[in-house]
Amino acid sequence: MTLLGLVERLYYTVHRRGDVLSVLRARLAARAPLRDVLDFGGGTGRVAAALAPGLEGTWTVADVDSESLARVTKSPRIRPIQIPERGPLPFPDASFDAILSVDVLHHVPAAEGTLAEWKRCLRPGGLVLAVEFDGGSGAGRFLARVARWRRQPCRFWRPGELAGGLEHAGLAATTERIDALRYVAEGTKPIS
Ligand SMILES: C[S@@+](CC[C@H](N)C(=O)[O-])C[C@H]1O[C@@H](n2cnc3c(N)ncnc32)[C@H](O)[C@@H]1O
Predict the structure, then answer these.
(1) Which of 9, 91, 104, 155 to mutate to test the pocket of ligand 1 (most atoms within 8 A of CB)?
(2) CA distance 114 to 108
(3) Which of 18, 72, 102, 142 stands the most exposed, by the fewest C-beta atoms within 10 Å?
(4) Which residue, by CA, sits nearest to atom 17 of ligand 1?
């Protein structure tokens, strides 16, 4: 495990992950019924496994890491798929009603391209929910220093920056703080 991964894991031990899941569950339920959900950078499928049972739809867990994807508990409603680190996502236009990304975007190189891909892959009226570490918070600045020290190319977006990035991609964006370090950015694709 990388040092940054260790620091992230320490963070998770002192902050209840359940808070994030509750926030995501409530926002997804407000958009029900959902036919197709993408968990971008979904890793082992932790988020999909926690949220899918209470919500409708088919969940695609997409990640660059095949070892994490091998641990996804497969079910008729949850399917893992490996994706490239950058570049177009392997999904047709307007494939998903919702795209989730939990603690992923700071790892993604040239993430503006990913935001544009999210917009392309969303159906009109569809929703992006991106949970991120606030690069402007004390803990976020510490994580950024650890990443720089370890020469790990991470970008910790401030809430306003990520909202601006989503708007630039063509989504109507809002942000809400979850705890001292994390926030959720919500982007909605216009109907027309
Ligand atoms: C901190 S983990 C979060 C995993 C999962 N979202 C969760 O909350 O359990 C970050 C994940 O981002 C994935 N990742 C890193 N770079 C990525 C990229 N360019 N595109 C998609 N996923 C990526 C990693 O493989 C890893 O599974």
Answers:
(1) 104
(2) 8
(3) 18
(4) 108
Residue with tokens 């508990």: 73
pLDDT band at 153 (very low <50, low <70, confident <90, very high): confident
> Which residue, judged by its Cα, is nearest atom 15 of ligand 1?
107
What's 75's DSSP letter? Answer: B
Position 12 scores a pLDDT of 62
Ligand 1 neighbourhood includes 43 CB (under 6 angstroms): yes
Give the residue, by CA position, lying nearest to ligand 1 atom 10: 104
* Distance in Å, CA 64 to ligand 1 centroid: 7
Domains, the chain, with CATH or none: 3-188 (3.40.50.150)
Q: What is the pLDDT of residues 11-21, one digit of tens each?
A: 665 555 558 99
List all residues 6 or more positions away from 163 whose beta carbon is below 8 Å from its beta carbon.
173, 174, 175, 185
Beta bridge partners of 187: 128, 173
**Which tokens sit at 115?**
């935001």
